Amino acid sequence: MSQPLDFQPSTIAPMEIEEKSFEMIAQEFGEHEMSPTQFAVVQRIIHATADFDLGRSVVIHPKAIESGIAAIRAGRPIIADVQMVQVGISKPRLSQFGCEVHVHISDPDVAQEAKELGITRAIVSMRKAARQYRGGIYAIGNAPTALLELITLVKAGIVLPDLIIGVPVGFVSAAESKAELLKLDVPYITNHGRKGGSPVAVSAVNALSLLAKHGAVTEGERRV
C-alpha cells in the first residue's frame, strides 16, 4: 500500500486552482502601470510560464489590446507560425466569433519552395499567409525568421496585420527580431530578449479571446 504524501494540495478544483494562481501572480507581480486589459495578457503569460522576468519584459503597443479584441470580434483569421501555437489556442472560444486558426509551415508547397530557395519554411509560410490574408492576428512563438519575414512584408505594404504577437524563443535572431518589431507602427505584443515560445504566443491569444468573450471595453469604445 502506497504511503500518503507529506504535502497535500490546498485545492484540486480546476477553477479554484486557476483563480488562486492568478491571485498569487497579481500579488507577487506588485504595482504596475498597465491597464487592466494589458495586465490580463501579461498575467496569463506568467501563468503559462511561471516566469515573472519574462512577464516583466513584455512590451504592449498602446493599440494592441483594442486591435486584438476588435479583430477577434470581427472574426478575423489568426495565423500561427507553428502547429504548437495552433494546437494551444482555444478554438471553441474563437469559433463563437467565426475566427479560424491557420498554420502553413507544413504545407507541401511551402516545404518545396523552401527547399528550392534554401530558406526556412517559416519564411515561406509567412509569404503564403500574406497572399491569403491581408489582415488578422499573427501569432509567432517559435521562429524568429517568421517574424523577420513578416516585418519585411509589413514594411513592403504586402500585409497589414491587425496585431502581431511576436515572441519567438531562441539564441539566433530571437531578441533581434523582437527589436525590429518594436520599430513598426503596427499593434504588437512582444518582449525583450531571448525568452518567449509557443506557450507565450498561445497565452496572449487566449487572453485576448477571453477579453473579447467577456465583454472587455476597449479604449476606442470608451471614446465613442
From TrEMBL:
<dbReference type="GO" id="GO:0009236">
    <property type="term" value="P:cobalamin biosynthetic process"/>
</dbReference>
<keyword id="KW-0413">Isomerase</keyword>
<dbReference type="Pfam" id="PF02570">
    <property type="entry name" value="CbiC"/>
</dbReference>
<dbReference type="InterPro" id="IPR003722">
    <property type="entry name" value="Cbl_synth_CobH/CbiC"/>
</dbReference>
<protein>
    <submittedName>
        <fullName>Cobalt-precorrin-8 methylmutase</fullName>
        <ecNumber>5.4.99.60</ecNumber>
    </submittedName>
</protein>
<comment type="similarity">
    <text>Belongs to the CobH/CbiC family.</text>
</comment>
<dbReference type="InterPro" id="IPR036588">
    <property type="entry name" value="CobH/CbiC_sf"/>
</dbReference>
<dbReference type="GO" id="GO:0043778">
    <property type="term" value="F:cobalt-precorrin-8 methylmutase activity"/>
</dbReference>
<comment type="pathway">
    <text>Cofactor biosynthesis; adenosylcobalamin biosynthesis.</text>
</comment>
<dbReference type="GO" id="GO:0016993">
    <property type="term" value="F:precorrin-8X methylmutase activity"/>
</dbReference>
<keyword id="KW-0169">Cobalamin biosynthesis</keyword>
<feature type="domain" description="Cobalamin biosynthesis precorrin-8X methylmutase CobH/CbiC">
    <location>
        <begin position="16"/>
        <end position="209"/>
    </location>
</feature>
